[in-house]
Structures are given as C-alpha cells and as structure tokens.
Amino acid sequence: DNKRRDMCMWLGFGEGPRSCIGLHFAQLMMRLLIAQLITRYHFSVDRTRLMVKPQNVIRLRVDPLNEEPEGREAEVVI
C-alpha cells in the first residue's frame, strides 16, 4: 500500500478519495479553452522548417480566423 501511495503523491491533483476538489473544474476549463482555440484559430503543421529527426516536437503554425462562428457565442474569461 505504501508503494502505491508513493507513486501517486506527485500527481498534480492526487488520486483516490482525497484527490483535489478542483480536478473537474480544471478539466472543464481546459475543455472550454481548447474549444475557443479551435473556433478562433486555424492550426497547421509548419512545413517551412525541415526536421529530419523530430524529438517530441511538432511545430504548428497558428493563424487567426477572420470569420466569426455562427450561432450563440459565450465569452470565457480565464
């Protein structure tokens, strides 16, 4: 039991019945942030740089969208 506790003690929100009460709120806020980024920007792979051996890195080009999304839009302040 001590080994399991030691493995989980460094997790950001903890684990089990005593985990952080803000876990679900933080996950919800990240989902909202990702949704806003996807609706406001266009993401594409940056092909101007040649990477022969990429190591855990993907270079992205981020361009703002000129079009406003249709329908209702809620402003999220973070």
Automatic annotation (TrEMBL):
One of its GO terms (molecular function) is oxidoreductase activity, acting on paired donors, with incorporation or reduction of molecular oxygen. InterPro entries: Cyt_P450, Cyt_P450_CS, Cyt_P450_sf. It comes from the Eukaryota. Keywords: Heme, Iron, Metal-binding, Monooxygenase, Oxidoreductase. Coiled coil: none annotated. SUPFAM superfamilies: Cytochrome P450 (SSF48264). Pfam families: p450. Belongs to the cytochrome P450 family. This is Cytochrome P450. It comes from Bactrocera dorsalis (Oriental fruit fly). The lineage of its organism: Eukaryota, Metazoa, Ecdysozoa, Arthropoda, Hexapoda.
